[in-house]
Amino acid sequence: MSVQVDSTSSPGVTTEGLSRAEGLWFEDCGFIIQAEMTLFRVSRDILAIQSPIFRDLFSLPAPKETDMMDGCPFVLLQDLAQDVDSVLRAIFYYDFFGPYPAPTTWAVLAGILRMAHKYEIEGLRKRAITHISSIHPTSLDQWDKLDDNPSAWFTEAQSELLQIVILAQSLSLDWILPTAFYRVCEYTWERQILSAQIAFDDKARLITACRVLESSAVTKVLSFLWPLDEREKCTTARYKARKDVEARRERSGESTANVPLDVWKEEDWDNLNVCAICLVNMKAAHQASRRALWDELPAMFGLQNWNELEEMRAKAME
């Protein structure tokens, strides 16, 4: 919907080429925001309730030459229009961005995280942190349950894994970084890492970690397949399983890497023809090696240990 120039607009304010945000232009409200080429007309009283940054802005004495548009005070924000749109919809439409596990999208989640952090909108900030933390757990048990609780926004965002890292670093959401980095190693190629807008040291550390995760770490996690007894049937089954899983480790084309936490799949147990005693021992050994790797994950990416990261998360949610 095009905006026509209003005679009450300040001389320095132009509406040429601008458009009103559908559903966020309320005629009975008296405050107009511009972000990029989009205009929003909303209630400044509601914004003041939600954000101390806006509250402080509105409490300042209005200068004599305040910019006006359509007879309303007007402000130009240096934020993405999509981000402004997302956070305003979350404020003015109660069901737009519900608490986890309500469905959302990566674009909406990222925009609300940025805006809620910048403008100190605490309720939305904590809600967004819960959404993004849900898919980046700090315990192996939670990680193993993710397949039972898929998040639609993350499935959509798998092509944006490096953007998740960049956003987490910019907002100091360090507790999500070990699993975020881990997924980069699983789904992303070196050339994408090298071209990402992250620090050089992070690129070097990440590529090194990717090599470890695809090689020696997988070898350790699969060590439970080496025979430790002389049962001929079980020994043969172990060697066959090891041969099969090694065959699928090679990465080619657009395939994902077989990283250690998930290289051995649940259905592989069903195809493993060993005795009950060996099966129990193998499952225990496999889980122990996965847990050891999980404990090492933060240090692999130059981060604090899990306990410290969990404390950071708890503090962010206070």
From TrEMBL:
<dbReference type="Pfam" id="PF00651">
    <property type="entry name" value="BTB"/>
</dbReference>
<feature type="domain" description="BTB">
    <location>
        <begin position="29"/>
        <end position="104"/>
    </location>
</feature>
<protein>
    <recommendedName>
        <fullName>BTB domain-containing protein</fullName>
    </recommendedName>
</protein>
<dbReference type="InterPro" id="IPR011333">
    <property type="entry name" value="SKP1/BTB/POZ_sf"/>
</dbReference>
<dbReference type="InterPro" id="IPR000210">
    <property type="entry name" value="BTB/POZ_dom"/>
</dbReference>
